[in-house]
């Protein structure tokens, strides 16, 4: 159980601490409770008071015995019996629940408005009936005298469903494009609905006519509130016969008297989040308003904050248990929070032991802050000569040191250091001297990188300050103090190279200005090294030199540019001569290239010819190929052109073709000789 206090109002969080998973056996749960102190000390007021993922709405039945909550995932409703401090039943639904209402004193009659335009009725045994409304619903209210359900949503109409006749009645036609919330006054049954345009329309159910219109969007704009966009109505609640509280989507709560169109008080949550819930606490005349981040309790007459709570997770709904100091919330988390605030009222009957528990905690508070004690370390005790007190009742061990009585500490300090007054006097004199030094011109520490640039910026900043003082303008921020340019004066990679060609050409007067700045920089470094803050004369001399030379800078601008260009040409000439000398000294070594198999080396001229040929255009290459006979271009009958290419043969292919040609010629000659011998048989016998 966690205890927090704001404005001296104690709030006990009964759902704080870790929860054990459901799938653990009883034996393992007992073992964990023995080992873990936090689990053993936690208070589980209602067993398994949670949802699988998220809880969206929570309500208490009129008899106070049952607490009902809806959530996801899967969409479900859970009913908890406070007399048994456990879950009574759980029912899964087809779609997520937007809101629900308990019509009976117990859980026997419940109506659910679901996000799929469905309205589902449940009785004591379970699902009873299901119907559908024409448009998506956002809220509904039950009119007890006529048994009518009033549905508001993404439509200008208010749909009426009569539960006695079991049919839809004529709807109410409003001026709003959409409606977000609605409520019925419990005394005179006036029906009120909050629109998306920031207005509240009031209707009389007996005559089905509109009887009033409040422009809450206009009234929510005050001198203390900051509003972005048009505020729509997100919460609505009646209190008695005449009071009504309205919550807007921009985080304001307006309290109205129905007899006036102006709000009695406007309370801003200062978060800009829609108000989710509004509750009235009659014992202390408080209004409990909540957005997704904070729950605020404030006086409805003065608007003064009573207390506030900020849960760990976003809030979806708040429910105040009737006639007690217990508060329950539905959150964007599995566990539903339970708070007990004794100032608001006593604990409910089913958990009256909470009063005794909180009284015991108040009687024996744990002292965590020591106002009359001084925290000292072991080293401090040795300096004071009190190290022998370690382990005694005069010292209380805490973290890396000890707490001791403040009176004992002062006595020991006086005895250990009797000249404390002299030290105090010297310290005061030193402070006075530093104050007088601060009035004089102080040396500014320059960064390690780009010192000259930093000095230039400091000078420009001083000149701009003088000009802005004369013109009564605001000083511009300094580059040296800007975090975006901090790296430029820390990282050596950003060092400005003054010898580069670009720098010298773009800054023709840089030589003169840099000389002045270098002189001043040298003076500053000498003073910084010696630690002499009194010497300010060199800076004055440098400023005089600047004023005398400022007129010459404009006259010698062209000459300076010419000089820089001449110097650059001379430097380039010297570089070229050095490169020539290096080329002459270097010896050329032969390079060897490997030829692929099947290829012969001809000359380097072929590769040069190929490179020249590749640089030519396609038209030039085609003309050249046509001259060589490897390309034939002819016109066709259709009107287009036809190009025929002859592929160039490689050296290996040419040799192969020549060998084949010789082989064919040899075979022809052999055939001729053989045929000649056959035609002369006499000569042929000589070979036998």
How does this structure look, described?
Belongs to the WD repeat NOL10/ENP2 family. The chain has 688 residues and is α+β, with helices and mostly antiparallel strands. Among the domains are: 2-363, Methylamine Dehydrogenase, Chain H (7 Propeller); 372-435, no CATH class. Residues 366-370, 532-549 and 683-688 have low confidence and may be disordered.
Q: Mind telling me the CATH class of the domain at 2-363? A: Mainly Beta
Q: Predict the CATH topology of the domain at 2-363.
A: Methylamine Dehydrogenase, Chain H
Mean pLDDT: 79
- Shape estimate: extended
Task: Give the full name of the CATH homologous superfamily of the domain at 2-363.
Answer: YVTN repeat-like/Quinoprotein amine dehydrogenase
Domain Nucleolar protein 10-like second: 369-417
Organism: Mohoua ochrocephala
InterPro entries: Beta-prop_NOL10_N, NOL10/Enp2, NOL10_2nd, NUC153, WD40/YVTN_repeat-like_dom_sf, WD40_repeat_dom_sf
Region (Disordered): 528-558, 633-688
Brief synopsis:
With 688 residues, the chain is α+β, with helices and mostly antiparallel strands.
Based on the model shown, name its key terms.
single chain; 688 residues; alpha+beta; Methylamine Dehydrogenase, Chain H; 34 strands; NOL10/Enp2; nucleus; NOL10_2nd; WD40_repeat_dom_sf
What layout of secondary structure does this protein have?
Elements: E1 2-6, E2 9-13, H1 26-35, H2 37-41, E3 54-60, E4 66-72, E5 76-81, E6 86-92, E7 97-102, E8 110-114, E9 118-122, E10 127-132, E11 137-143, E12 148-153, E13 157-162, E14 167-173, E15 179-184, E16 191-195, E17 199-204, E18 209-215, H3 216-219, E19 233-239, E20 243-248, E21 252-257, E22 265-268, E23 277-281, E24 286-290, E25 295-299, E26 305-309, E27 315-320, E28 326-331, E29 337-340, H4 353-363, E30 373-377, H5 378-384, E31 395-398, E32 401-405, H6 406-416, H7 420-439, H8 451-471, H9 501-506, H10 510-530, H11 537-555, H12 557-585, H13 604-615, H14 618-628, E33 631-635, E34 641-645, H15 651-678, H16 681-685
Antiparallel strand pairs: 1-2, 2-29, 3-4, 4-5, 5-6, 7-8, 8-9, 9-10, 11-12, 12-13, 13-14, 15-16, 16-17, 17-18, 19-20, 20-21, 21-22, 23-24, 24-25, 25-26, 27-28, 28-29, 30-32, 31-32, 33-34
Helix pairs in contact: 8-10, 10-11
């Amino acid at each position: 159980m966690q205890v927090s206090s704001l404005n001296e109002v104690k709030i006990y969080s009964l759902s704080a601490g870790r929860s054990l998973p459901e799938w653990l056996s009883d034996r393992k749960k007992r073992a964990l409770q023995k080992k873990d102190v936090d689990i053993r000390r936690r208070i589980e007021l209602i067993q398994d008071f949670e949802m699988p993922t998220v809880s969206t709405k929570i309500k208490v039945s009129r008899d106070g015995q049952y607490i009902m909550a809806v959530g996801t995932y899967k969409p479900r409703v859970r009913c908890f019996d406070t007399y048994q401090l456990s879950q009574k039943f759980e029912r899964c639904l087809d779609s997520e629940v937007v809101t629900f209402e308990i019509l009976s004193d117990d859980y026997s009659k419940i109506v659910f408005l679901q996000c799929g335009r469905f309205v589902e009725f449940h009785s004591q045994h379970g699902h009873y009936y299901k119907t559908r409304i024409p448009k998506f619903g956002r809220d509904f209210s039950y009119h007890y005298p006529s048994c009518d359900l009033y549905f508001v949503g993404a439509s200008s109409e208010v749909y009426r469903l009569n539960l006695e006749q079991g049919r839809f009645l004529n709807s109410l036609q409003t001026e709003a494009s959409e409606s977000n919330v609605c409520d019925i006054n419990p005394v005179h049954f006036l029906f009120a609905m909050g629109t998306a345009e920031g207005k509240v329309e009031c209707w009389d159910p007996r005559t089905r006519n509109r009887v009033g219109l409040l422009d809450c969007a206009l009234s929510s704009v005050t001198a203390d509130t900051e509003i972005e966009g048009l505020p729509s109505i997100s919460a609505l609640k009646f209190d008695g016969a005449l009071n009504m509280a309205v919550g807007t989507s921009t985080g304001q709560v307006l309290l109205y008297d129905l007899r006036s169109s102006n709000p009695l008080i406007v309370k801003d949550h200062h978060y800009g989040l829609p108000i989710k819930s509004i509750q009235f606490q009659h014992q202390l005349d408080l209004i409990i308003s909540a957005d997704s981040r904070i729950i605020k309790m404030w006086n409805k007459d003065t608007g003064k904050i009573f207390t506030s709570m900020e849960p760990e997770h976003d809030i979806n709904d708040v429910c105040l248990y009737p006639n007690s100091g217990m508060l329950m919330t539905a959150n964007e988390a599995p566990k539903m929070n339970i708070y007990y605030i004794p100032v608001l009222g006593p604990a409910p009957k089913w958990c009256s032991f909470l009063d005794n528990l909180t009284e015991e905690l108040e009687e024996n508070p744990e002292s965590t802050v020591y106002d009359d004690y001084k925290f000292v370390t072991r080293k401090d005790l040795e300096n004071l000569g009190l190290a022998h007190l370690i382990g005694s009742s005069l010292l209380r061990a805490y973290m890396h040191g000890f707490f001791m009585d403040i009176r004992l500490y002062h006595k020991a300090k006086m005895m250990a250091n009797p000249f404390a007054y002299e030290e105090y006097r010297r310290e005061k004199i030193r402070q006075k001297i530093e104050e007088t030094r601060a009035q004089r011109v102080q040396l500014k520490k320059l960064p390690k990188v780009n010192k000259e640039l930093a000095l230039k910026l400091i000078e420009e900043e001083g000149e701009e300050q003088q000009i802005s003082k004369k013109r009564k303008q605001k000083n511009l921020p300094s580059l040296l103090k800007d975090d975006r340019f901090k790296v430029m004066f820390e990282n050596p990679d950003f060092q400005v190279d003054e010898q580069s060609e670009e720098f010298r050409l773009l800054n023709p007067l840089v030589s003169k200005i840099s000389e002045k700045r270098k002189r001043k920089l040298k003076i500053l470094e000498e003073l910084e090294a010696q630690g002499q803050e009194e010497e300010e004369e060199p800076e004055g001399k440098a400023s005089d030199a600047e004023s005398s030379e400022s007129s010459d800078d404009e006259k010698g601008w062209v000459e300076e540019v010419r000089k820089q260009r001449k110097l650059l040409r001379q430097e380039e000439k010297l570089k070229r001569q050095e490169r020539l000398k290096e080329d002459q000294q270097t010896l050329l070594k032969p390079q060897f290239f490997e030829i692929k198999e099947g290829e012969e080396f001809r000359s380097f001229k072929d590769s040069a010819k190929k490179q020249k040929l590749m640089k030519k255009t396609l038209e030039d290459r085609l003309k050249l190929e046509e001259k060589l006979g490897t390309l034939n271009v002819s016109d066709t009958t259709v009107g287009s052109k036809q190009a025929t290419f002859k592929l160039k043969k490689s050296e290996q292919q040419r040799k192969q073709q020549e060998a084949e040609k010789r082989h064919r010629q040899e075979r022809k000659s052999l055939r001729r000789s053989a045929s000649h011998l056959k035609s002369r048989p006499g000569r042929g016998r000589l070979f036998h």
